[in-house]
Write a structure and sequence with these properties.
This protein has 271 residues and is α+β, with helices and mostly antiparallel strands. Strands 7, 8, 11, 15, 16 and 17 form a six-stranded antiparallel sheet that branches. Strands 12-13-14 form a three-stranded antiparallel sheet, with no helix packed on it. α1 runs antiparallel to α2. The longest helix has 36 residues.
Length: 271
C-alpha cells in the first residue's frame, strides 16, 4: 500500500512536468522558428514479486510490478513550420528541400539551421529568420546575435536594400556580401535549447556546414518567415489529457491515504 503512494505521486509529478512543457509550447505558438518539445514518459525499472511459502524456503512467482512513471526528456520536433510572407527584406525563411533518409524507417533525418554568433563569440543555431539590421549595419537575429556567413564572419550591409538568393547569397548594389551560413545537424539529440529560439551543440564545438553538402538541399526565401510548428489544437487536447491523468493519480493517492487512515486509526486501534 505504501508503494502505491509513491507510484501515484510519481505519476502526478510526471504529468505536472508534461503540463509545463505543453504550456510552454502553447505560449510560443506565435514565436518565429520555435520548435515544439515532445515529452517522453517512461516507467521506472519493474520488480519481480515472489510470494514466500510457509517454510520461508519455497517461493511462488507472482509477476512483475511497475513502480511508476517519470518524464524522461523533452525532445524538440524539427519539422517545418508554416512559412508566411512578410515582405520585409530582412526576413528570411529556411525551407528544407531534402535531408538524408534513414534506410530502415524511410524518414528524413537531421535538421538545418541558420548560424549565429553570440556577443561572447559562441556559435549558436536557429530556425528563426526574423532578422534585423543593427545600427552599425550588421545582420542580427531578434535578440541581437550576429548572423554569420559560411566563413563564420558577421555580415555587414550598407542598407536594408539587399537581395538574398535561394542559396543564401546576399547582394546589394551589385556587390556580393557573402552567403548566409547554414549548418546541418545529423543527430538532433545533440542540440540543446537555450531560449529565444536558439540551440547550441551539446559538449561545445560546431556543426558541419550545409552549404555545398551534397546530402542536403534547401532554399532561402527572402521576405518570408517560418512560424512555430506548434499545433495549437493538438496541444490543448494533450493538456486536457495530461490534466485528467493527473486527477486520476490524485484520486488513487486519496484512496490509498484513506485506506491507511482506517488501517492505523480504526483497524489498529486498541480499545
Amino acid at each position: 500500500m505504501i508503494r502505491g503512494l509513491y507510484t501515484s505521486a510519481a505519476g502526478m509529478i510526471a504529468q505536472q512536468r508534461r503540463q509545463e512543457t505543453l504550456s510552454n509550447n502553447l505560449n510560443n505558438v506565435d514565436t518565429p522558428g520555435y520548435k515544439s518539445d515532445q515529452t517522453k514518459l517512461r516507467t521506472f525499472p519493474e520488480q519481480l514479486i515472489n510470494r514466500l511459502g510457509g517454510d520461508m524456503t519455497a517461493s511462488t512467482e507472482v509477476g512483475d510490478l511497475a513502480t511508476g512513471v517519470y518524464m524522461d526528456e523533452a525532445v524538440p520536433d524539427f519539422s517545418q513550420g508554416t512559412v508566411t510572407e512578410t515582405g520585409k527584406a530582412t526576413d528570411v525563411a529556411l525551407i528544407t528541400s531534402a535531408l538524408p533518409v534513414n534506410p530502415q524507417t524511410g524518414a528524413q533525418e537531421g535538421a538545418l539551421l541558420f548560424n549565429v554568433r553570440t556577443p561572447a563569440g559562441d556559435a549558436r543555431y536557429t530556425r528563426n529568420g526574423h532578422f534585423t539590421l543593427s545600427p552599425t549595419g550588421y545582420l542580427t537575429d531578434d535578440v541581437g546575435d550576429q548572423v554569420v556567413n559560411t566563413a563564420g564572419q558577421p555580415i555587414q550591409l550598407p542598407s536594408d536594400q539587399f537581395q538574398v538568393a535561394a542559396d543564401g547569397t546576399i547582394t546589394s548594389g551589385g556587390a556580393n556580401y557573402g552567403q548566409i551560413g547554414v549548418s546541418y545537424a545529423a543527430n538532433t539529440n545533440q542540440l540543446v535549447k537555450e531560449g529565444s529560439s536558439l540551440f547550441r551543440l551539446d559538449g561545445g564545438g560546431a556543426l558541419p556546414a550545409a552549404n555545398g553538402n551534397g546530402q542536403v538541399s534547401f532554399n532561402v526565401k527572402q521576405g518570408f518567415v517560418e512560424g512555430s510548428n506548434v499545433q495549437a489544437d493538438q496541444t490543448v487536447t494533450d493538456m486536457m489529457e495530461s490534466y485528467r491523468s493527473f486527477e486520476a493519480n490524485q484520486k488513487v493517492l486519496q484512496i490509498i491515504d484513506g485506506s491507511l487512515d482506517k488501517a492505523v486509526n480504526q483497524v489498529g486501534r486498541i480499545s
